C-alpha cells in the first residue's frame, strides 16, 4: 500500500500541485490542489495534504525556495516512533510522507469550548523531554502546534526542533493554563478576536522581555 501511495504522490499530486513562496516571512500560498487530494493545512514552509483513499497518511510538500526539509528529515529520524509524534514513512526530494495525527489543536479547543485536561499538557511535556533525550531542542511549541485526541496530548509541528536556542513558549503556555484557565471557562468558546489580542499582547511581551531577539536560555 505504501508503494502505491508514493506512486500516486509522485504521478498525480506533485505535477499538479501549485504552491508558492511569495514573501520570505509569510506563510506559503496554495493556488491549486488536484482532486481528490485535500488540503489539510499550510504553514511557513510547506503544505500538508491528504488523499481520501489513505486517511491515515499525509504528505508535507515544501514550497520551491523554502528551506528546512533536510532538517525535518533529520528530526524525524531522531524521533523514530513515539505515540505523541507523527512518523516519517518516506522521504522525497521535496516532500515527506507522514503518519497522520488526528485531533483538535489547543487553539481550536479554546475557540470551540472543548475542555483541555491537564493530562494533555503532561503528555506534551513528556514528549518534549523525549525529544531532548534524542538531541533535539523543542522550539515554537504553542497552541496551534499541539493537539489533543481522546484526552491525550500530541505534538504536531517539529520542523524547528534543530534550532539551538531554547524557547519559552511552551512554559509560558503552561503558566497561562495554571493561572487563567478556570474551571468555569473550559466549556465556553473563546471569541477568535480575543485570542488574537492575547497573541498580539504575548508577542509584544516577548519583544519587551527579550529586546535582543534572543529567547531565554533555560531548560524544559
Automatic annotation (TrEMBL):
- Keywords in alphabetical order: Kinase, Serine/threonine-protein kinase, Transferase
Q: Which domain of life is it from?
A: Bacteria
State one molecular function term (GO).
Answer: protein serine/threonine kinase activity
Cited InterPro entries: Kinase-like_dom_sf (IPR011009), Meiotic_Drive_Suppr_Kinase (IPR052396)
Where does the record locate the signal sequence feature?
A: none
**Amino-acid biosynthesis is among the record's keywords:** no
Asked if the record carries the keyword S-adenosyl-L-methionine, the reply is no
- The protein depicted here goes by the name Serine/threonine protein kinase
Amino acid at each position: 500500500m505504501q508503494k502505491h501511495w508514493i506512486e500516486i504522490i509522485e504521478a498525480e499530486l506533485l505535477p499538479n500541485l501549485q504552491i508558492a513562496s511569495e514573501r520570505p516571512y509569510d506563510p506559503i500560498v496554495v493556488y491549486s490542489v488536484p482532486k481528490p487530494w485535500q488540503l489539510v493545512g499550510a504553514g511557513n514552509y510547506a503544505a500538508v495534504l491528504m488523499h481520501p483513499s489513505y486517511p491515515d497518511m499525509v504528505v508535507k510538500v515544501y514550497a520551491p525556495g523554502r528551506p528546512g526539509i533536510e532538517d525535518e528529515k533529520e528530526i524525524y529520524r531522531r524521533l523514530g516512533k513515539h505515540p505523541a509524534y507523527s512518523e516519517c514513512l518516506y522521504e522525497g526530494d521535496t516532500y515527506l510522507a507522514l503518519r497522520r495525527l488526528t485531533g483538535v489543536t489547543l487553539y481550536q479547543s479554546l475557540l470551540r469550548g472543548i475542555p483541555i485536561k491537564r493530562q494533555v499538557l503532561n503528555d506534551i511535556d513528556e514528549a518534549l523531554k523525549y525529544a531532548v533525550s534524542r538531541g533535539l531542542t523543542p522550539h515554537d511549541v504553542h497552541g496551534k502546534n499541539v493537539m489533543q485526541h481522546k484526552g491525550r496530548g500530541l505534538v504536531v509541528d517539529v520542523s524547528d526542533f534543530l534550532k539551538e536556542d531554547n524557547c519559552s513558549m511552551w512554559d509560558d503556555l503552561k503558566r497561562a493554563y495554571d493561572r487563567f484557565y478556570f474551571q468555569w471557562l473550559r466549556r465556553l468558546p473563546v471569541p477568535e478576536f480575543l485570542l488574537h489580542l492575547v497573541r498580539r499582547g504575548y508577542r509584544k511581551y516577548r519583544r519587551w522581555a527579550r529586546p535582543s531577539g534572543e529567547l531565554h536560555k533555560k531548560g524544559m
